[in-house]
Each structure stands twice: as C-alpha cells, then as structure tokens.
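pls design
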C-alpha cells in the first residue's frame, strides 16, 4: 500500500510571523500556559531529553505508527528552516523515533527542534550538537522504518490538538502549543503575565530585606 504523504505545495502552509515567534521564545512556557488559561499544555511526561534544551517555532506535524520513524525522514525533506517537527507517536516508549543521526541532519537543514509523543535516544550526543528534543522517554531501542504515516495533518500531541503552523514552545517545564491565529494575542498576554510575576517577585524579595 502506498503511504500518503504531504506534497511540496502543501508543505508551504501558513506560518506565524517570525517576530511573534521570537517574542514567545523569550517567555517561560509556564507564563504562556497561564496566559492561555492552562489550555494547550502538553502532557507533563513530555520533557527535554537534555538539560537546557529549548524549542520555539511553527509545527510541522507528523502522525506515525508507534515506534516507526519513516514519516520523520520524509518530514525532513519537506520542513522549512525554523520549523519544529511535532510527532504524534501514540505515546509509545519502547522504540526511539530519532537519535543523533537524524539530529545531525536536522541541524544541517535548520530545523528548530523535535517534539515527540514517543521516545528518543542518544540524549548526550543530541546535547553535544545542540539539537533540542522533547520526548516522553529515552531508550536505546531503535525504530521501525515501515510506515504508515501522515504529514501536515491535525494531530493530537500529548493530549493537545496541533495544526500545521501552530507555535511550539518548550523549556525545562515542558511543552506548550499556541494556535497560529492566536499567536500575537498570546504573546501580549504572556508578556503581561511575565511582567506581573517579575514585579511580584521583586516585592517579595524586597520584603525579606
């Protein structure tokens, strides 16, 4: 059976303004989560696989059979620089969907990072090359490469709906999904939350002195 895949024209889906992505990238994921009333926060099991990893960029969506990364290889052919490849992998933790070699290819292509509802491997090597990966688990077990997969479709990622072009933000607290059409408003709200918390923290610190 032929595996349907996104074509080049479809891969050029609308993406958010870069300046809005950059504004959101400066905010803690927790502040963004507060700004969207705690909606859009992916399952807490999905975390950075190496300390200090951060991601920010439009989602290039992949829906794959659990433990299979054929769709990720195809996504690398079609994603644009700055995209975050977001994979609905059924939450499977038994097979790593990617590791160092895919990470190296992604760096060459300018990919901003990966968010996996599944597992990854080669955490230390991915840290060394600076490729941000967020996943449910790490395992040395490699993936299948048989498909099927779907690219560029709406997916469920960690219990959150994701459409192509939605903004993915990830830091040490986890991953937040921001609908593309709401990005500017969420940036405004997130910056207001950040300013309020900064002022409140300063007041608390001052009270100790």
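designed seq:
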């Amino acid at each position: 059976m032929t595996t349907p895949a996104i074509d080049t024209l479809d891969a050029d889906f609308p993406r958010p303004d870069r300046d809005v992505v950059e504004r959101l990238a400066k905010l803690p994921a927790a502040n963004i989560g507060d700004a969207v009333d705690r909606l859009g926060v992916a399952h807490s099991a999905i975390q950075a696989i190496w300390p200090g990893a951060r991601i920010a960029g439009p989602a290039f969506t992949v829906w794959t059979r659990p433990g299979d990364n054929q769709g990720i290889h195809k996504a690398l052919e079609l994603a644009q620089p700055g995209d975050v490849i977001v994979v609905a992998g059924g939450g499977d933790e038994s097979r790593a969907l990617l590791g160092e070699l895919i990470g190296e290819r992604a760096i060459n292509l300018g990919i901003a990072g990966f968010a996996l509802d599944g597992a990854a491997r080669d955490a230390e090597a991915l840290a060394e090359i600076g490729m941000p990966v967020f996943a449910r688990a790490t395992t040395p077990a490699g993936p299948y490469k048989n498909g099927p997969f779907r690219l560029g479709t709406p997916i469920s990622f960690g219990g959150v709906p994701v459409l192509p072009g939605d903004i993915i933000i990830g830091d040490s607290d986890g991953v937040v999904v921001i609908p593309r059409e709401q990005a500017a408003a969420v940036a405004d709200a997130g910056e207001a939350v950040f300013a309020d918390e900064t002022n409140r923290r300063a007041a608390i610190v001052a009270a100790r002195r």
